[in-house]
Amino acid sequence: MSLASINSQIRNTEQSISNLHTQVGLKQDEIDRLNRAIAEIESLQGDYEESRRHWQDVQLSAGTWKGELADKFEAFRDGELAASFRDVSEAEVERVLDELQQAKSLLVAEVDNCQMQIAYKQSSLDRLHADKRQEMKS
């Protein structure tokens, strides 16, 4: 193999490795964003459950609160407030979290694949450098 051919293959392999490193970086950034989103949703999910329990468990005795204002509060709590909490069910939140976890798993697999390709190309590059040294000796 000629020195020019070896040099060309070295440049191509180095460029390919560089591109793979860029892909890994981009995918790692996506994984980080997904991790932050998952953590935020899980945190909000806990806040959501705590808030739901808080407004559902508010019991006002007739001696504490009565009359039209108490009736309006009960109607609001049982109507509009309850509906807003039903709009986002726990199952829906779990589904979203599952989808985010699946997307993260896919990206992790893609990163692993890129890293295997980098290792393979690096060994090819090492072989090309050895070929170049051998060619330069002869």
The proportion of strand residues reads: under 5%
> Low-confidence segments, ≥5 residues, pLDDT <50?
none
Q: Give the integer mean of the pLDDT values.
A: 85
Q: Separation of termini? A: 12 Å
Q: Which sequence of SSEs, written as H and E, runs from N to C?
A: HHH
Looking at the structure, what is the overall shape?
A: rod-shaped
- Enumerate how many helices there are, as a single number: 3
Count up the domains.
1
Helix content: over 70%
Largest sheet: none
Query: Structural class from helices and strands?
Result: mainly alpha
Gyration radius, rounded: 30 Å
Number of strands: 0
Q: How would you characterize the overall build of this protein?
A:
The structure is a single chain. The chain is mostly helical and 138 residues long. It has three helices and no strands. Helix 1 runs antiparallel to helix 3. It starts with a helix and ends with a helix. Keywords: Coiled coil.
Please tag this protein with its features.
YwqH-like; coiled coil; rod-shaped; mainly alpha; 138 residues
